[in-house]
Each structure stands twice: as structure tokens, then as C-alpha cells.
Amino acid sequence: MPETVIKPRVKTQPKTERPKLYKVILVNDDFTPREFVVTVLKGEFKLSEDQAHRVMITAHTRGVCVVAVFTRDIAETKATRATDAGKAKGYPLLFTVEPEE
């Protein structure tokens, strides 16, 4: 007669990991008008007038400024759309994306 082997059931809980975050960085240039940069920051990143102005001034004085932190897809999309808005008007406006440490 065959022997019955009983194995305990083990439930494995999948571990969900938080997605890595990426910084969207505004790079200063000497050609894009300040008002236009503020407009792009307000439109694409939903910043208030005051926040957008502070980000623009920080980038102007330091050379770069972190605008916001998102997951990779969102960060790349927003940076591309903001950069494209500058290109459409003929400005060298540049937003980059870097992983957050």
C-alpha cells in the first residue's frame, strides 16, 4: 500500500518594492526668458506662481535646481514635455532626469 506524504502548504507573500524615484532638474541657460520658464513650471509641474519663481531663481543663481521627484516614467515624460515646450518657442530650455539617491 502506498504511503501518503503530507506536505505543509507554504504561502508566499510577494514582496512589493517601492519604485525608484527620479529627480527632474531644471538646467539654467542665459537665453530663455524668466517669464516663460515660470509659465512652463506652472503648466507642466503644477507649481504655484511663487514656487515656480523660486525654482527659476534657484536655477538661475546655482545653475541647476530640482523641480520635483517622480517615478521614472512620469519624470521622463514631464522633463521631455517641458523641454519640448521650450524648443517649440525656439528656446534652449532644458530639463534633465537623474535617479534619486
UniProtKB/TrEMBL annotation:
<dbReference type="GO" id="GO:0008233">
    <property type="term" value="F:peptidase activity"/>
</dbReference>
<comment type="function">
    <text>Involved in the modulation of the specificity of the ClpAP-mediated ATP-dependent protein degradation.</text>
</comment>
<comment type="similarity">
    <text>Belongs to the ClpS family.</text>
</comment>
<dbReference type="GO" id="GO:0030163">
    <property type="term" value="P:protein catabolic process"/>
</dbReference>
<feature type="domain" description="Adaptor protein ClpS core">
    <location>
        <begin position="18"/>
        <end position="96"/>
    </location>
</feature>
<dbReference type="Pfam" id="PF02617">
    <property type="entry name" value="ClpS"/>
</dbReference>
<comment type="subunit">
    <text>Binds to the N-terminal domain of the chaperone ClpA.</text>
</comment>
<keyword id="KW-0645">Protease</keyword>
<dbReference type="GO" id="GO:0006508">
    <property type="term" value="P:proteolysis"/>
</dbReference>
<protein>
    <recommendedName>
        <fullName>ATP-dependent Clp protease adapter protein ClpS</fullName>
    </recommendedName>
</protein>
<dbReference type="InterPro" id="IPR022935">
    <property type="entry name" value="ClpS"/>
</dbReference>
<dbReference type="InterPro" id="IPR014719">
    <property type="entry name" value="Ribosomal_bL12_C/ClpS-like"/>
</dbReference>
<keyword id="KW-0378">Hydrolase</keyword>
<dbReference type="InterPro" id="IPR003769">
    <property type="entry name" value="ClpS_core"/>
</dbReference>
